[in-house]
Batch of 4 targets.
Target 1
Amino acid sequence: MLGGGQLGRMMSMAAARLGYKTHIYCPEKNNPAEQVSYRATHADYDDIPALEKFAGEVDVVTYEFENIPVSTVEAITKTTPVYPNSKVLEVSQDRLTEKNFLNDLGIVTAPYEGVSSLAQAVDVLNDISYPAVLKTRRFGYDGKGQAIVKNGDDLIAAWQKLSSDKVIVEGFIDFDIEISVLAIRGQDGEIKCFAPVENQHKNHILDLSIAPARIDDEIRDEAIKQATKIIKEIDYVGVLTVEFFVSKNDPMLRVNEIAPRVHNSGHWTIEACLSSQFEQHIRAICGLPLGDVSFKGEARMTNLIGEDILKMPTLLNDPAANVHHYGKYEVRAGRKMGHVTWLYPDKI
């Protein structure tokens, strides 16, 4: 496992349930995944000797976040299978490349254009118009690396804030809800999708996921169809997450982004589905049959951000609350410390 965060932690626990031992590789010590894994290597992602030694001690490699260097995956792939492959990292790590890939598949996104200067951004906004969103092409998540611009003054401030010459300008989508589909593809090409989940955010960080999403069947079917097309075309193995914008005044279902990994919006699957997203990912990368994606009941998952984790004693008094602590030692504002899922079997 490349990466030692909470996603790696939950995948390691799922792997243990299936009889596998997980070896974590990441620079940071005392990480959440290491606490529940068989072994850990602490080294940088560009340390080739350490990567080669690690690769020689495991049978298959995966990763728990998408900013792993492509060169790291390519180095390991020389001796050991890595799923998903490096191609999806090349696509998903650059917002411009990602949107080009999606549009080439006939999948609709927000209108967009890559720019490298403030003057170019001004020209693009003459076509896309305000409001719009400026985003760095790389290394953005949970609202980082982006800014909304409503006029020319906003544009100047946003450009200075992003401090990059690799930026993408996106038209602002006035969406009603955001949904995500978690698709799984096995080594044999089998594809399954969990039903779309509805996501609500606070301060650009996921706050609440409602599963299944409160959408029409037509939208549900189209979202699953598009996620299936994406995961097949990119020759993906594992869990891939596709985020969509749904708008009452827009007939198009628009993809916001893809994430080549298990995802925060799928944590509810641990309690609500026969096989969680984490187990599905392990099944896929280890060449096992994919599990059942059907629901045990409606689920609602909320993140415990920063000092929310201090509510844990109270939450544990709620017999319906499924509480997860990620084992992080330091509480910080905006940091994901855990989550809670409530399951409603009579509402499915």
Target 2
Amino acid sequence: MAGHLILSLETATGCGSVSLTRGAPPGFQLLAECSIQQEITHSRRLLGSVAWAMQAAGVVWQDLDAVAVSNGPGSFTGLRIGLAAAKAIAMASGKPLLGVPTLDALAMSCPWAPGLVCCLLDARKQEVYAAFYRMEENGLPKPVSRPVVLPPARLLDSFREPVLLVGPGAIAYRELWTGRNEITLLPDHLAQPRAMHVGLMAVHLLAAGRVLDPAVAAPLYVRESEAEINLQQMRQHG
């Protein structure tokens, strides 16, 4: 069967998922996908979800061509858990490790959007993680900005053309966008990041040889963690 077989992990938000995908369009196949809205941490469910997906698809470790992970921005704890699991699986199986930016994968929710796309995750503290894209003819997102973290009202002031808002960050601040004719909101059921979309992006990274070194791979946090902020404040105050 043609196409690279990729195990993908998505733990950037509270809705974690695992998928097994093969190839890229037009011959793309979703072999298995498991999504869980977590009431407990990803560490309690992630490896069990991987085992379920592998069994459901009839796949063993040797069958894999690569392991992919959504590497941020997103929940600091979720990203660390997902990357740690992906590193362990990649190293144990001897397969390449691929890191897919979370907002890039989220843009795959709307592959044929005609104009500007803005992908948003809730960053807490009344802020969002945001990045802008334009979708190419092959359905892949082309970034037109780097990921940033900022208050949603400030993001709103930056819109200069019609824009499609995508992701749980857009849903979290729905009332802010209401009444703005230049803004279209992707429906709620398409708002969550998905491991399947991580796999769709990862197959192109694998073809380009853009693999990660498991020994040094780190999440893309965009914003400093609370521990880092507290440490800086302690240093500033002696």
Target 3
Amino acid sequence: MDRILLMTLGSRGDMEPYLALGEELKENGYEVGFCMPEQFRSLAAEVSEHFFPMTHEYLDLIDSPDVKKITGQIGSGWSRISTLFKLLRETKPIQEQLIRDQRDADMSFKPDRIIYHIKCAYPVMAALRDGRRVELLIPMPCLVHPVRELPAIGMGQFNNRLWNKMSYALTNSAMISQAIIGYGNKIMKEWNWAPFKRKEVKRFLLSEVPVEYAISKRLFPQPSYWPDHVKVTDFRERNKSKHWKPSEDLARFIEKYPNPLYVGFGSMINAKPKEVGKALLELSNKHNLPIFINSSWGGIEIESPLPENIFLVKDIPYDWLFSRVCAVVHHGGSGTTHSALRFDRPQLILPHIADQFLWNKLINEAGIGPLGFPIKKFTSALFEEKVLELLKY
């Protein structure tokens, strides 16, 4: 029986595609292990008993005020850039520990193959210096392999093909130099592995490692000019509701107010959480609109008592909820976007950062919802206008 180690970093949304793949692999007779941040141990246990933790400090960092300032678009652009460079300096010990944790998982589980997230540096190191068999699973486009019509994630909204091409060169260079060479070469010396050269790693990522883009072809058909070892498959999503049961209050709310609007920003925060909460109350009252609100990490703040046609939670399986709502307002994470798409629900995306702006564009171009606006431009009037537009889809 082949053993496969699934290795991923990030928030809950970065875990789910790997958990879904793990279930699929187990059903096909593979023995599966997970290497994830320690905080996801219980989540991984829903799929496999083989769990190898990465330091909890990574997610602690994501929840820190400095990172929230960046992801929430709080403060001026220059202040966020300054904060980002400070984090890059301060987090080097954490990044190095992540690499060591990833190698420990490999040595302990002894897999025949490693399937990894682009944020994980060790699989590249192991493939190029130890001959390990690795594959890359990416839940979003416009990250490694160039798309002629779109720039790389986080590199603007331009449609100029020359800039688009340059943006991937810049992104790949930064990713390689910082995440793999900058963090990895010191540790490789400890392991008596020869340090990397930039061209070697770039060639591996673009031309050698098998890559699966696990995204919907309805939103992103595979470019005809991509190489044969790169495939767009489809977004993987496991049945999360089988491990969860709705409360009696929630069941009563859905029964009394069928097909409410859903609003939630996942792990994102913003500079106006109370203003967002107030706007939702006003919208519900003005249009007699039942709303299901996921306050999650604090992107929406609402004072009690709530009107009876608003229900507030912090965590819920989307595959249970999205089959019961009329439309979805969210931040534009890949997982939420695909979960709503799975149930053909109209979507309004208020992007906060990174790939969320891309999903906003792709959802609108696919005719699934209106073009949203960045969360930092939030006003009650603009939000009301866009929600009413959404409800007409």
Target 4
Amino acid sequence: MVSIQDLWEAEFLWNTVGDWVRAPVAFGVTFTVLPLVRGYISGRRRRWAEAGLEVPIAIELLALLVSRTSRLFLFALALGLASTQVELPRNVGRIVQGAVVVTFWFQVGLWSMAAVRYGIDRRARREGRLDPSLASSINIIVFVAGLIVWTMAFLLALDNLGVQIGPLLAGLGIGGIAVALAVQSVLGDLLASLSIALDKPFGVGDAIQVDEISGTVEHIGVKSTRLRSLTGEQIIVSNTDLLKARVRNNGRMRERRASFVVNVSYTTPPEKLRAIPAVVEEIVKEQPGTRFDRCHLLSFGDWSLRYEVVFWMTTPDYPAYADVQQAINIAIIERFQQMGIEFGFPSRAFNPDLFPRMFRTEQGVP
């Protein structure tokens, strides 16, 4: 009569019956317990987020990585643990090992990309809002990070599979140089976009001026930046050209400096000339959101006395500035009329020689 011990140690397909029993048990326990642990940690992470609890960075990041673990990786891990319990044919063992290695490095890539996005989201939460400059650069940062992460994961997977990556790296280096020379303008724009993402000279929604081009930033891409001009058309500028140009970022203007010139007639008496700065200062201060700077008779023009007026708007909004400037101009006209001050304007002496003879009479020009 065959005992249980003999049956347990009986050989079947290169392994004992006990080995064949332990292998599926290991697979079943692993593929059951690990998903349960992942689900528990993911649930705890959601409850932390809903409650708004402050969790240490290490614990929060670990919970995020666990929640981003794919079932394919758990299946491959369970299969790998089960394969250690039995001795498989060489070809089958290599296939199982290759599947585990490829799945592992694929999962490492997913974890790395999740960590990158976690860093971006944490910075946004720390500032209380998503920085517009960072929002416009997220796609660029994720693209560059993904390119690096997946390239490294691919090379490490090949190395673990026994592939000699030294010649591959040399070939990739030579090929990379050739490709870089062929698409150097594209790579230049890519590096420029990365520079914009890190340095953040402007962001989506900022009103900028690039040389003779003015517009509002609508999109910052990998190769180009799109502006909506003041006249309505879309202007596309390469990122490399943006970095080479002098960019005026009006979107980050905290105050607006305004200056204008008032031309007064040379016939204005000196006492009225002395009173003009105080009158202009009073008019400017009456306008909301303004800070008077100065008003001086700075120069003698060809046909007028020139007063330069400077004031500040506490808001950079251009329509608000236009409304205030209009109110100041009208008030200056009204006060000058009350004071009997005439504005200067160019005039020319009458020269009868400039008129044709057909418009003259015998006594002269009528």
